């Protein structure tokens, strides 16, 4: 068996160990009629991440977790594959799939190397999942390989501001000053964080994202920098609603594979 890259092995252990903490959230999301996105629950009718009608489409969710996004796509008519690094998360996904009568193909694996043929999918998506837990220099080209010409990739993850304004020791809350350099921010290791120790995350500068997309063969369709709603309160992972109204803590990229 091929040895997993360090970040893949670390993140697998991390998510297998905490999957039980996400069961309730997964169940609530599976029950939703209309999707909501990200840490602030932005409504689908505000940011339009999914095609309204996915009848006849093949779709893949990269880093599906409990697979509620996969379920949303299947209910819109798509034939859906979900892949996740955590077997424990997939057990919840499989249970909820059976409970709701939604047919999904679920794969235990790494979104950087998906065991599927190229040119297989019309649509690919990641809400967090691969979007932050996989190395973009590996998973973005893999998503490109999986998509047919003209296919769409949508991914939502942490904005680079989150890493830049997070104290280096991993303590909460996030600050309103730069805590680390903008350049060289590719890999963020949270295993020794003071508050909420985690796994290994990835991000890029905006110029690095654009160079990667263009060099891989994608065209950029859209970029959304998410702002917390005016009525949002509390905090999410050390990020207060007030902070997230002044600075984006999430972004959404929409890309199209060039014909």
TrEMBL record:
Every Methyltransferase type domain range: 61-155
A Pfam family per the record: Methyltransf_11
Coiled-coil ranges from the UniProt annotation: none
PANTHER family for this protein: 2-METHOXY-6-POLYPRENYL-1,4-BENZOQUINOL METHYLASE, MITOCHONDRIAL (PTHR43591:SF24), METHYLTRANSFERASE (PTHR43591)
UniProt-recorded name of the protein: Methyltransferase type 11 domain-containing protein
């Amino acid at each position: 068996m091929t040895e997993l890259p360090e970040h893949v092995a670390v993140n697998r252990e991390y998510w297998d160990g905490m999957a039980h903490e996400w069961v309730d959230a997964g169940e609530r999301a599976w029950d939703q009629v209309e999707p909501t996105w990200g840490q602030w629950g932005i409504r689908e009718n505000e940011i339009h991440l999914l095609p309204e009608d996915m009848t006849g489409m093949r779709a893949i969710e990269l880093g599906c977790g409990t697979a509620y996004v996969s379920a949303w796509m299947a209910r819109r008519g798509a034939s859906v594959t979900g892949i996740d690094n955590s077997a424990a998360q997939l057990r919840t996904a499989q249970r909820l799939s059976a409970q709701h009568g939604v047919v999904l193909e679920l794969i235990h694996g790494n979104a950087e190397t998906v065991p599927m043929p190229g040119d297989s999918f019309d649509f690919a998506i990641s809400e967090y999942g691969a979007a932050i837990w996989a190395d973009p220099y590996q998973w973005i080209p893999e998503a490109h390989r999986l998509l047919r010409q003209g296919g769409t990739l949508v991914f939502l993850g942490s904005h680079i501001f989150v890493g830049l304004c997070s104290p280096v020791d991993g303590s909460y809350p996030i600050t309103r000053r730069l805590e680390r350099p903008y350049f060289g921010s590719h890999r963020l290791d949270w295993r020794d964080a003071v508050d909420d120790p985690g796994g290994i995350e990835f991000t890029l500068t905006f110029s690095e994202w654009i160079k990667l997309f263009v060099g891989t063969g994608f065209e950029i369709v859209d970029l959304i920098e998410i702002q917390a709603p005016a009525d949002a309160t509390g905090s999410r992972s050390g990020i207060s609603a007030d902070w997230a109204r002044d600075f984006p803590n999430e972004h959404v990229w929409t890309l199209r594979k060039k014909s």
